Amino acid sequence: MGLSTHVLDTMHGVPAAGMVVALYTTDGDAAVLVKQFILNQDGRSPDGPLLDNASLQRGSYRLVFDVAGYFKARQVALPEPNFLNHVSIDFGVAQPEQHYHVPLLVSPWSYSTYRGS
Length: 117
Fold this sequence. Notes:
By secondary structure, the chain is mainly beta. It has one helix at about 65-75, and strands spanning about 5-10, 15, 20-25, 30-40, 60-65, 85-95, 100-105, 110-115. The strands form 2 sheets. Strands 2-1-7-8 form a 4-stranded mixed beta sheet, with no helix packed on it. Strands 4-3-5-6 form a 4-stranded antiparallel beta sheet.
């Protein structure tokens, strides 16, 4: 199944529909944009997996979630500067034949992630 993500807005108790997300490959400090997309009504990529089994390679990746932009679009009053602006999750893929799912649970003030199924 490759690589996937899912974002839940824990402030409102809903999927984070409309959040902008970018996927990068990384090598040290260097990052190369693979794709950018907007989450659908289920808080997932509208195109399905971010990378399919054939495209997912062993290596390092980064997902960047535009948290402040999402909550501003939902008209949440945020301080300036925002506590969270972009949330970046750097992760490694050691076994590309397995499914890597990177969920994000987020509010304007906190987030958590884990390797999902």
